[in-house]
Amino acid sequence: MRQVAATARRVAELAKTYPIDRFYVSPLPRARSTAAAIAAAIRMQPVIEPGLREFDLGDWEGRSFHELRETEDLWNHWARDPAFTPPNGESPVTFAARVNADFSRLAAEHPDETLLLVTHGGVISNLLAQWLGDGPHDWRRWEAHNCAISIIDQDREGRWRPILINDISHLPPDARTKEDATAWAVAEA
User: Fold this and answer.
1) Among 22, 49, 41, 43, which residue's Cα sits nearest to residue 114?
2) 187 lies in a domain?
3) Cα–Cα separations (whole angstroms), residue 58 to 29, 65, 91, 125
4) What is the pLDDT of residue 23?
5) What three-state secondary structure class fits 47?
6) Model pTM?
7) Is the CA virtual torsion 1, 96, 47, 149 positive or negative?
8) Average pLDDT score over residue span 44-58
9) Cβ-based neighbour number of residue 143 at 10 Å
10) Residue 161: which H helix or E strand, with range?
11) How far apart are CA 73 and CA 83, in angstroms?
């Protein structure tokens, strides 16, 4: 909750420089809780966008990453075959296509507007990998931390330009997790 409160304050500060035109949130509870705090800080209500939901593990949903690694060998399956799909879930290939299509649709519906999206680490890392990295398979390099903020701008040629990536400088030091030490930001030009 301390991460969420600090993030809401930071988004309100950033909105002074990057005024928000549209606010979207994943339908999943954790994202909606974060969006509620941000909504109070910026006085703008989010619209639920189903396409912003996290990776769907299907029948394996609710199991720990450790268990999936140990019993299903999930990450090795994906390393060998990114089209491997958990029962009734998504593969990395279908997830990347869904996320890119949904975000592209939102961007096309709102040209020249600033969109605020509250979503999940998988969605964020996947988009960053596609826009700034070497494609969907590069997602681990762009892994987003809890309550990290990224700002991406699109130039006139349609290329994405990083302004702020995976920034957690707004989080109190004692509210950061160990993994958060790898976060980085891009200096504005």
Assistant:
1) 22
2) yes
3) 17, 14, 10, 20
4) 98
5) strand
6) 0.86
7) positive
8) 95
9) 17
10) strand 160-167
11) 15
- The secondary structure element, H or E, covering residue 104 is helix 92-109
In a domain, 102, yes or no: no
User: What total of structural domains would you count in the chain?
Assistant: 1
Cα gap 54→189, rounded to integer Å: 32
Contact 162/188 with Cβ under 8 angstroms?
A: no
80 inside domain: no
Establish if 176 belongs to a structural domain. Answer: yes
What residue numbers bound the domain in which 47 lies?
A: 1-19+40-52+148-159+167-189
| pLDDT tens by residue, 111-149 | 999 999 999 998 999 899 888 888 877 877 888 888 999
Alpha helices in 112-184 (DSSP H): 121-131
Give residues with Cβ within 8 angstroms of 98, minimum separation 6: 51, 90
